[in-house]
Automatic annotation (TrEMBL), chain A:
<keyword id="KW-0808">Transferase</keyword>
<dbReference type="InterPro" id="IPR004165">
    <property type="entry name" value="CoA_trans_fam_I"/>
</dbReference>
<dbReference type="GO" id="GO:0008410">
    <property type="term" value="F:CoA-transferase activity"/>
</dbReference>
<dbReference type="Pfam" id="PF01144">
    <property type="entry name" value="CoA_trans"/>
</dbReference>
<dbReference type="InterPro" id="IPR037171">
    <property type="entry name" value="NagB/RpiA_transferase-like"/>
</dbReference>
<dbReference type="InterPro" id="IPR012792">
    <property type="entry name" value="3-oxoacid_CoA-transf_A"/>
</dbReference>
<comment type="similarity">
    <text>Belongs to the 3-oxoacid CoA-transferase subunit A family.</text>
</comment>
<protein>
    <submittedName>
        <fullName>3-oxoadipate CoA-transferase, alpha subunit</fullName>
    </submittedName>
</protein>
<dbReference type="InterPro" id="IPR004163">
    <property type="entry name" value="CoA_transf_BS"/>
</dbReference>
UniProtKB/TrEMBL annotation, chain B:
<dbReference type="InterPro" id="IPR004165">
    <property type="entry name" value="CoA_trans_fam_I"/>
</dbReference>
<dbReference type="InterPro" id="IPR037171">
    <property type="entry name" value="NagB/RpiA_transferase-like"/>
</dbReference>
<dbReference type="GO" id="GO:0008410">
    <property type="term" value="F:CoA-transferase activity"/>
</dbReference>
<protein>
    <submittedName>
        <fullName>3-oxoadipate CoA-transferase beta subunit</fullName>
    </submittedName>
</protein>
<dbReference type="Pfam" id="PF01144">
    <property type="entry name" value="CoA_trans"/>
</dbReference>
<keyword id="KW-0808">Transferase</keyword>
<comment type="similarity">
    <text>Belongs to the 3-oxoacid CoA-transferase subunit B family.</text>
</comment>
<dbReference type="InterPro" id="IPR012791">
    <property type="entry name" value="3-oxoacid_CoA-transf_B"/>
</dbReference>
Amino acid sequence: MINKYIPSVKDAVVDIFDGATVMIGGFGEAGSPIELIHALIDQGAKNLTVINNNTGSGHVGLAALIENGQVGKMICSFPRTANSTVFPDLYTAGKIELELVPQGTLAERIRAGGAGIPGFYTATSVGTVLADTKEHRTFDEAAFSGKQYVLEKAITADFSLIKAHQADRYGNLTFNKTARNFAPIMAMAATTTIVQTSNQVEVGEIDAEHVITPGIFVNRIVTVSNPMQESKLIAKGVSYP
Amino acid sequence: MNHIIENKQTGWDRSQMAQRAAQDIPDGSYVNLGIGIPEQVAKYVPSGREVIYHTENGLLGMGPTPEVGCEDPELINAGKKAVTAIKGAAYFHHGDSFAMIRGQHIDICVLGAMQVAQNGDLANWSTGSKNAIPAVGGAMDLVAGVKTIFIITQHVTKNGEPKLLEQCSFPLTGQGVVNRIYTDLAVIEVTNKGFELLELAPGVDFETVKVKTAANLIDSRLANKE
């Protein structure tokens, strides 16, 4: 019998190792798997490379993971956000590495990684400093002629931490509104995809036509019934741990 | 609504710039609005036109700001502000969202600018300062992928320095990408001849705009009358 549910967030992240590459879903607080991130803080793995669109806010969730000294490198598109001081301070002090990637290129590099495509060409960033060291080429095909493109390489990860709205024991997932963002592509791009959900449902409850992430991309699921909300924690001045 | 046309006015304010840009968005367009003044464009689409707004964090059919107390932290725009979804809206993941952009499915993108050059180069993500934390977001994807790029910006900086230039001094977001610029003083088209003035704001004359533009400015209004 397939049952990807496991008892606790602690069990879910137990084997994340020092030096691992970890994708973390979310766009700002929307879709951020805070409970899984806090479990990773408790677990203590160090020198992580983390992929997220941002770098977290306040002193909870991703910002707390960075503040706890567990992240050696961030790959992201927008490391500045309201209430975001942890990453900027460490970056300015030269204590954390940054790979800045345009948001759509970041998404496609993740998607490519999950789809078994080692690289692709895009017009994004051509003529900018972000393309300085990249391979350029042109194409003759009518739809793409007359423009320069740069080679972008796929990103894969050892682990993905994402938040879903509903999950069944096969790992079929749905998401809530714009909390979906990077989660489905990150689920595809990691060796081990770990999901937190507030709605454990029976197999068959999610109509097959409405499954957003098919269970094949999911390895572990943990129920977090009442997930914390990052902005509320920040408003209360909460720091984790 | 028609407060654009009033006497004794000099130039357009922020809302009026957004309102002016909104007039140039055709019925049926799919439009991405950048953060800042561009966000206001949605309020001013002329009645009778149906426009679908895309926000790159995964929503087509973005609606107005919710009423206070009705915000949903999982329904936000690219600026991470609470929004609503219209009837007929669609959610999707980031891969699909940027396929809409990169694949040229979005018709118009309205963005802010730090600098625009006469060949359409745009700088709007970084001043190149060594102390700044670099942050690019989706700006480079949007200008590379969207068919038509509108810019809404003040004509000069807070210090009075021109933002419309022969060449950008800040790091570029994209090369030759800007189509049209809406400033507090004028509407300017970027053509293969350079900046061409299409329209002046109320109470503004051509010489004023020319002086505040650090590149050649062609008066297209004359050409169009001939």
